[in-house]
Every structure is written in C-alpha cells, then in structure tokens.
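G.,

No rush on this.
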Amino acid sequence: MSGHSKWATIKHKKGAADARRGKLFAKLIRQVEVAAREGGGDPDMNPTLRTMFQKARDSSVPMDTIERAIKRGTGELEGVTYETVTYEGYAPGGVAVLVECLTDNRNRTGSDVRSTFTKRGGSMAEPGAVSWQFERKGTVLVDRTAGEDDLMLAALDAGAEDIVDDGEAWRVVTPPTGLHSVRSTIEAAGFPVLESDLTMVPTTVVPLDADTAKRVLGLVDALEDNDDVQAVHANFDIPDEVLAAVES
C-alpha cells in the first residue's frame, strides 16, 4: 500500500500548482452536489456531505461555489442529475483497479472508461471481480512536521486504526465513520492537516518493476483525466526510487 499512498501524496503536493485545477474543482463540486442530493444539505446531519465539503475546502474551492452546489443538490437551484457508477478492471501487471464515477450519461462514461483501459494496456472486468480486494477507509493526510509519537497518541485515542509513513506526510487511517472525529481531534491537537477523504484501501498489493509502474501510472492518470471519474483506486506498490523518478 505504501507505494500507492505515496503516489497520492505526491499528486496532492503537485495539485496546488496544477494547471488542471479547474477540472479538480469541477469534480469536487459534483461530489458536494451529489452528497447533498442523497443525504440533505446540512453537513452536521449528512456525514458524506461533511466529508465532501471539507475535501472541497482543503482544495480551496470558494465557499459560495460550494454553497451553490449544495443548493443544486437539494433542489433549491436547478442542476444536472448525476448517478454513481463504479467500474472494475485490471491494469498492466495484474493490478486491480476500481474507478468511481459520477455521470449524467452512463453509456458515454462506460465507453470512455473501457476505451482508456484498452488503450493503456488494461482490461475491464465484471462487477465484483476486483472490489473484494479493497476496504472502505477514511484517511487524514498530516504534514510531516508533526511528530509521529504525539500524532499517534492523538489519532489512536480518537479511534484511528493506523498511521502510515508516506515520506513527506503521515497518512492516518480511520474507520469510514470515524473520519470526521479523528480529523477534528488531530486539528484540535495542533497538527497541520493537509486533506482528508474516504477511499478504498487495498487488502493486498502487487509489487511493480519500473517499466510496469510507468504503464500503470499512465493508465491511472488517463482515467483521472476523465471529467466523470471522481477517484481511481488500485492495489499497486511501487519502489521509492521509481516514485522519485516520476516526481522529478
């Protein structure tokens, strides 16, 4: 898991100056809107909306933009109706991949995702073929300046399950329902939180050599470039030296 989570950390670091920030904003706004539609517009009563609201704020989405998305979700403003679709497949090297989408056209999105898998050396799979290899978890990314021992005490007392060394940050793993309380406790203790999210964590990982790693990361990036794709989860593990080369 370390190689995959470190790659996510690298992408977070680069995201602040990413030329595709507008695309990121659009995806985050869509997530807020759907969460509000499915569970109501009050973040205190809707844990999913609370998570997506915080995720959007972590990426500096303006408050008025978030508020409009919530109103579209609750029907106070007119908006497009999106549905949640998850696709499963395999990347090069036998890596299991889950692709979470929000779409207003299932046929278009399914066709685009399948085409991306094929062009990048992967293949689509039937529902359930790879999802059993993942567990839903909450994650809180904490700046590396936080001391590990003090952070661990605060996080575990709040109900966290583990702390993972991601190189330039600590990744605190929580039960899905404990994400908000763990993050709140960590922030109250004075530790700098970079972001938090609900994600799918692999139960086993596939180690990759340099060539296969580049092909897998190419597929993941191509999938994430699709406007309808909200998250891509995969069970690869990549050596630190390969990640360093990718980051440079």
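When you get to it, here's the other one too:
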Amino acid sequence: MKKQDVLNAVSMPIYSPSFKKGPHVFRNREFMIISYETDLEALRQAVPEPLELDLSNGPIVKYEFIKMPDCNEFGSYTESGQVIPVIYNGQKGNYVHSMFLDDICPIAGGREVWGFPKKLGFPEFRVDSASKDCYIGILKYGELEIARATMGYKFEAVDTENVRKAMENPNYLVKLIPDVNYEPKICELVNYPIEDVTVKEAWKGPASLQLFDHALAPIAQLPVKKVVGALHFVSDLTLGKGKVVYDYLK
C-alpha cells in the first residue's frame, strides 16, 4: 500500500473503511419529536459557549426518536436523543446534546466527520401493536430502559412547509478528537446543514415522555417538568457537509 493509498482512505480501518464518503441521502426518515420544559440551570450546564440558550419559549428540550429505514452508505437504523434550541451570532438554531443508535457505521461516520455525540444504544420507534392508536418510543442503553415516549397517532395535520423551514435552521455540534497523548487534537463547533428537504406529512397530538437515570447515559440530567408539544413527520433529506464556525483551540 502506497502513501497516497493511505491518504485516499475515507475512514478507519483503511483496509475496510467503517463508512463511505457521502452525500448521505435519507428516504422516508420518520421523526417523533416531543418538546418538554426542563430545569434552566441544568440546561445552562449542557450548552457550551459560544452558543446561547434560546429561551423565547422557555427552557425547552426536544426529545427525538428517528427511524431511518433507507440511507445511502449508512443503511437502515433507528436513533434517539436530545436537541436544545440555541442562538449563535444572533441566529436561532439547534444544538445536538445526545444521540443513541443501533448501527456502527453511522456512529463512526457521525462522530468522525461532523462530531455527532453518538453512542451505541437500542432505540425502538413504532406503532403500539396492541392499541394501534399511538406511537411508542423506547430507548435502552445496554439492558436498561432510559427513555419511554408515547404520542397519539396522527391526531391533527400540520403545515408541512413550516416543518420544512424549521429543519433548515442551523444545527450545531461540538467535534472533539483527542491526540495520541489524550490532549485535544480537534475541538470545534460545527454547523451541519440539512439539505434537499421534502416533508411528506406532518402531525401533532398528545404525548408523554419519561426519562430514567443511568450513570453512563445521563439523559435524565435534563429532567422532564412538562411536555409542551409533539410532532410526527416523514421526510426525505440529505445530510450536507459540515462547516467549522468556531475553533476552541484557537
């Protein structure tokens, strides 16, 4: 293997890369997003500078279950985690605080390329097989359940154009990669775009959310005080190339 062959490798291991180069196109990506009010001080601890909290609707967290049945290079998988409304340079956006999913390919790619805070977990997102009238979201970390959500099945239609516009807001991540001596080699605030969005259907309805304590998956550190809304929708989209907007090492 020549030096240039090493440089041409997309990801590790270089003899059999964990993921391939995008674009990563998602088809029929299905979301259940439950917005809830949380503890303000805990929220302040979760969001890194130079991002600021967007408190226009109060101390809000968006808890997401996402089913991704068809994505170029990444395959078919399910994801769950927390997103926090923020402001950067006067513009509203979202900061991704936690993500758990069941597929090593997008775990490796998401962390190494953009800096998504991905850990291995076991999320489920489906229609209740007994009642048939609600969606169920369950997240396990290892053996234990750490999140449980329900939402009424397609209660009230929502304007898909408003959902599409909201998805195109800026999204932020902290990408941290250590050097071989554990000192930070890369420490960046990354803005990643969601592009070519088509929202096929969107619904709101009643919802519930429970979060449970876990030492290594501490999503309950942003506790649920009150559920304030829920959105279910299906879309096609492309995960675009990220852009570094702030370098912590400089």
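Helices lie at 3-8, 40-46, 104-114, 160-167. The chain has one domain: 18-247.

Enjoy the weekend,
O.
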